[in-house]
Amino acid sequence: MSDVPPSDTLEIDLDLGGEVEIDLSDIVSEVSAAVSEALMPAVEPTCAPPLDEPARVTQVEVERGEAEVELGEAAFTPPPPRATPAHATQPAQPPAPPPAAPQPAPQSARPPAQPPAQSPTQSHAQPAAPPPARARATHALPPPFAELVARAKDERLRALVASTFLRILKTLEALKAVEGALTLQKVVAVGGVFGGVRVQATSLLAHLTETVVQGDGLDEEFREVLDGIRFVVAHEMGKVFSYEFRGLTSEGPSTYTRAELTRAWGLLHNCMQQTAITLARTLDPGATGQQLFADYRSKTENSVTLYRELQLLLQKVRTAQKANGILLKHSLVRHLEHFREETMHFLMYKDWGEFGRYVDEVKRAFEEMEDFDCVLHGFAQYLSTLIHHVGMREVLNVRQSNDPAAAAESGRA
What we know:
Largest sheet: none
Number of helices: 20
Shape: elongated
CATH architecture of the domain at 134-288: Up-down Bundle
Oligomer: single chain
Distance between the termini: 153 Å
Helix content: 55-70%
Radius of gyration: 51 Å
Mean pLDDT: 73
Low-confidence stretches: 41-58, 64-135, 406-413
CATH topology of the domain at 134-288: Four Helix Bundle (Hemerythrin (Met), subunit A)
């Protein structure tokens, strides 16, 4: 009762006059009720939360809710993937989805409907598509090359030879643009067109190198042929672009003369044609340049003219060696100038430089009349060797085999 304020009093009237049986429990109950009524205004409730605070959930309820969410997700997540693909793969078939959703077996029992719906399988079908691509590559080749490729029995060999031929022909096409630029009245800038040639030739060289290095399954003899072609292409590219004609692909006016640019073009053009002929003979040993290239016939005529003119020049040199007068020596010098202007371009482009140096040496010796006979002797030896090399040209051998009269003429020469 210490909690009762001192100012408050409790009055209890007891009548003890008679014999009264007192139940203390009732008294305690009445006293407790009276005390509670007296204390209610002064004591605030402590168990109810304030109105401005949200109701709090016990930790047990929180844990129970989280467990139910997890169970709900575990029970709900799997169905969407099953239902969604079934309806997504067959949007255009209204009657099919009802039986297809509950019964996966009917879906597999309908093979005709699966190919159009499963478009991703087309990516897996691409490895089987190379034959049409290879056929297109073969059809893209000129007829003589396409006929050669068709003779290959192995499918992989056909694809490899066709792709190599295509790269060679692209390089020759780029060289044709260079030739067109060189025939113009003014050769101002050819760096761009020579740059196109370099790009195509580099692509060919990379293709050959990759094939040789990864030559698994290739015939060893065929692989050696490709390796030889790779070496020749790399050698001629280095000779033209890195050594003899540096800066050939630079922009702006060229620092080289038309004759020098023609020689650079000729080195690459001859290299690509000979490369194509060499590759063609792996499929047909009897393949010739005349069969593959339309301009190869003119090469035959040019070689015949060159062979005849070199023999005539050698005769003049020997005549000048025996002559004591000045006129025959002077006639030789004039003929050399005419040959360099009119016929020297029929030589192999690699021979231009050496032949030009001999001509300059003969002219110098004639002007100074110093060791002229010795210079003519050296020049005659060079001409004999050169005539022998020209006579070994393929175009001349083919002509002689097909024309007995030409063979007899060459024999008399």
